[in-house]
Records
---
Amino acid sequence: MNDVIVRINNLQKRYGSAEVLRGVSLEVRKNEVVVIIGPSGTGKSTLLRCINYLTPFDGGDIYLENQRIDPKVTNLNHVRQQIGMVFQDFNLFNHMTAYDNVMVGLRRVKRLPWKEARAKASHELERVGMLKFQTQYPAELSGGQKQRVAIARALAMDPKIMLFDEPTSALDPELVEEVLSVMKSLAEAGMTMIVVSHEIGFARQAADKIVFMDEGVIAETGTPEQLFLQPKTERTRQFLSKLGSGFSYGKDTANE
């Protein structure tokens, strides 16, 4: 239990009469990469936003390590420093350079001295292959480059876990791989991650656990081999068949 970074118990979220999350429970352990898949509108992004309380939830509990996230008693800013989040639409400050976008949290939130913050920002930009673009503004960068800056900004806070909300969905197809490559390198380095994505190739290569969500619940969980090759539920099989990824159920296709 000591290596559990995030623990979610019976999480519930409603918008009016619509139940978006209907009793979701999940554990994510240190160094684990969890990829959440499922049809649109099934609560995947809402689940991520509840984890760091960007979206308040209506029932259940979320723990970051052993700390229950409760806005009445928890310093949410401190929690969010430990939970890095990368959104679909980058959320960069357009009036700041790539370098300043990464540095701003280090100076204003972590209160690091300028020299220390500069060194940290440079390190994270280099880590995602964006150091040579540090003086450029978001308008001068491609979608993939902007997303890599957003990843560097989240990493600069030294989070215990990274959340990715469909980070490639807004990118042109030829730019997707440069972002996935950064994410794969983070996974290989042992970063704890929860990724909402339709990139099945990434999920197969990088995930330790696949979570299939449908209609606000977790319908099935397993390793990539278990869930993609031998899904247990008919609903999972239906979803995977619509992806057109050549899934072959009931046998191992690795050697074909």
---
Amino acid sequence: MKTKSPKAGNGFSYTRAHFEGLVDQALEHARRLGASDAGAEASEGCGLSVSVRKGELENVERNRDKSLGVTVYLGQRRGNASTSDFSEAAIRQTVQAAYDIARFTAEDPVAGLPDAQDIAQAHEQPDLDLFHPWAIDSAQAARIALQCEAAAFATDRRITNSEGAAVSAQQSHFFSAHTHGFRGGYASSRHSLSVAPIAGRGDGMQRDAWYSSMRSAADLASPQAVGRYAAERALSRLKSRKIATTTCPVLFESPLAAGLLGAFVQATSGGALYRKSSFLLDSLGKPVFPAHIDITEDAHQRGGKGSSPFDEEGVRTRSRKVVDAGRVEGYFLSSYSARKLGMKTTGNAGGSHNLTLSSRHTRAGDDLDEMLRKLGTGLFVIELMGQGVNYVTGDYSRGASGFWVEKGRIAYPVQEITIAGNMRDMLAGIVAVGADAYNYGAKTVGSVLVNRMKVAGS
């Protein structure tokens, strides 16, 4: 296996070899105490965040943290403890604390480490190109943030204020091991640039924001492009109005469409399923989306924001079709939730990996303009407010703003409305997915057109 191991001079205080030694100390002490199984993980993160507002430096923050977490099993009783002190005495105390917690914890018949056959061995842990440290100081970061905000102000004289611009450079690494044979770890990075301009004056002010987030700073959008686009979004919302209550098709802008995909993941995750707190109980093998919808998961995408050679338990990850022709082909399960459901882990302890929702009907020319034409007359949503999703029933109700569209063309901006429906109906009612694919964290999806929702206005 070839991996980029943390070395001195890259901003980290500890090497992978040092972390391996700490983890091995913890596991050895757990064995001496009489643990039937144990796991440990050492990690370190560091970064720089700089924000500006109205042409002035506002905040400079540096963060650095470290941790050693230990899990001890006594049969089917489990205890956890952690420390930020890497001394030998502190490691022994932390293992002892986890051991003592396990002693007084009730037995859980499905508690335990992953099965040995599911563990990602060394040759199954490829370098996924996740680590691109950004050698930037606070002055350079401030300069980039100021350029971004200045570009927003320069777009139009109606950009009158700003909530600020920010640059963040973050990196981390870890090493983990447990007594079922797993050993692994890697370094990763995530950098971002954002700005939130305000357009208009008085009661007619409107704000919007935009950002770029990448593992490599070289892949970030230019500060000028981010600032200009954020300003254009704020300007497009000037003179927003309410609309009368109606029922109509709704087009979700691609960043918001990722939230619909996230709701599906939440509803098909092991914890929600075994607790019976999901509107998609017993959906495996059944149609939840229209037949033209597929969802794929690619854990080994090079440089992907959701890429990992193994999950948080050390279980190997893989590529798979989660939804095929509208039918659910797989859930998102950890070893624990899989045992609760009488199933096998899917390598999703810690979450999903690089999901893409696509439609078999999407053509290369299905850009946003074409999606508006498919919408016809209805609502194009670009912002959602609140957390109004009931994952037990699927009921959905959220504040929204966007644009009213007539005959495939934007007529005027709208605000102070609520969109409502049921997630089952919304997922089943996806009419089209745009070619304007947008990556939001570990999810990629174009704009999504839902055939029918309630819109509450004046």
---
Amino acid sequence: MVADTVDAPRGLGLAIGYPGGAQWRTAMLNLPVFQDNSVQGFYDRLLASRPVPDTGKPDPTAMAGFLAAHPETVNAMTAIKRQPLTSGFADSTFRGLNTFYFVNANGDRTPVRWSLSPMREVRPPDETSSNPNRLFDSVVRDIRTEPLRWRLLVTIGEPEDDVRDATIAWPADRHTIDTGTVVLDSIETESAGNARDVNFDPMVLPDGIEPSEDPLLPARSAVYATSFRRRAGVAGEAPQVEVGEVAQ
């Protein structure tokens, strides 16, 4: 577990059920792009950022070497740093950073990326709070006050857009479709049977949605499965945030 900081990445997962038992599962981040465009790059970045015993921090030489070999990560990190910080989950934009295809009855495939755009006013973060659970405590209080809403937006890719590279944002002028509103109106403490036990595998898709050639998608599927198995084997751990204990 890590403390909530103003610049910590935030995630939002959705599991949408369809008649007949089919599901669409998507895990999104509040980042404009992902830091890596290959499985090897992701692995190498983790190794380069591993703390060394002497300092408890990453070896700057190792990280410098990694970045020199991965200009795509340098560009992605620059884009991430340029994104303004927001106050919490409620006013964050969440993006599915990989590309998928929407497929019609004729088999025509359209590349898409989706995102959740907050309907709440965007505010700057509270830089003064030292509460290690600030983000989760805040979202608990927010939902108690009123439901949280995001517009579910689908962006349509053009033939020149790279469907394999999650480090590259598509141009802002791409056609976007507002497909509806996602509403969160209740919140529960993490426990067996709720989100703790859902594997937000990006390859769990209903008919009409297919994965792109992005190499990160099958890797995410494998990693998420491992994470799920490890969570399922943990018993007796107290949740980090108890909803009922968060003050108004």
---
Amino acid sequence: MRIRFYNCRILSMDGDLNITKGEIHTDGEKIAYVGTSKDNKVPFDKEIDCENNLLMPSFKNMHTHSAMTFLRSQADDEPLQKWLTEVVFPAEAKLTEEKAYWYALLAIAEYLRGGISTCGDMYFLSSAALKACQKTGFNVLISGAFNDFAQKDTTPEKEYLAYNDILPNVKYGAGFHAEYTTSLPLMEEIASLSQKYAIPFFTHCQESEKETKDCIKKYGKTPVALFKDIGLFENGGAIFHGVYLTEEDMDILKEKNISLVSNPASNIKLANGIAPLKRAFEKGINIALGTDGAASNNALDMFREMYLACMLQKLKYSDASALKAEEVLRWACCNSAKITGFDNDCLREGKLADIIMIDMHTPNMLPERNIPVNLVYSGGVYNVKMTMVRGNILYYDDSFHMGEEIEKIYYMCK
């Protein structure tokens, strides 16, 4: 389908953060034109008057557990280990693939409502996320969630061969839940998988102080140093959280081209702390943002993650200039492409048409002194008017187009 967006303002994020007036054309799943108005000899299937609203790259939620919407508001106000062992793990033991499918669709609806086109999904029922993204066309990087307690019916290599590039909107990365839930032999097996197929690696890492200290006690080194030593970092990837990274850990991440995906809302809700994003950024580490799952957040809201990422660094370093809002906006929209491999980091001809429209006719977006800063400090999901994924409009003006009726999704989840 060929779609023309006209009478719009454009924040392409292709280099600078300047905003221009013009139009965008899409052709199938790609962007065909970004620029000023022009005569077009080929007719469009649809033309949309943007009414001077803003078109920009979509947000990418780079760490989440989509189906964990089933645990929203069920495991609140408890510390991490108690939260995991007494509430989350017992509840997950009762979760079926069919139920996880509907809860993953619920998450995707929330992603779309908030301008998210892509997620990095890690969950033991990964087939549910695959099925939900197959139904909707939503972009997903599935990372293995292996550990000593789950997925006994398959192996990391079998899962990789079953899922990787099965659909254009699906990618797969090697991974396990965390060092503290995974035996050394299983970690080494996943390192071998990553090296054999040259695929990136993903895991929860140094999320809590206890996790970090226990690993040092057990192995004589931090999880980051351990992962490097057993060969898990040879093909890129990302760690999730990284709250207790040392200077040496960050040097390893930079050396090995490993990204840091920060989840500020989840980290403060579980009282784990504030990740050293300012230092990681200064060292040149690629940083992206994620929400984590709805059990520990509880919203799947990238506006809130951007806001907290900025604000918490100012608090951590006692420096109001510690982090600029414009840089955090790049973390939310652009830096994920280095992690997922999806070509959707900016609005440019030939890029994936993962585009959102921001409603500028709202009180919280005025005055328009600095629109990128407004997006971070005063923006919210209610500003998202449209979310397009791979050239398909999956959300527009409170209407969802996901392959399943939204009311059926609500009904099944209730």
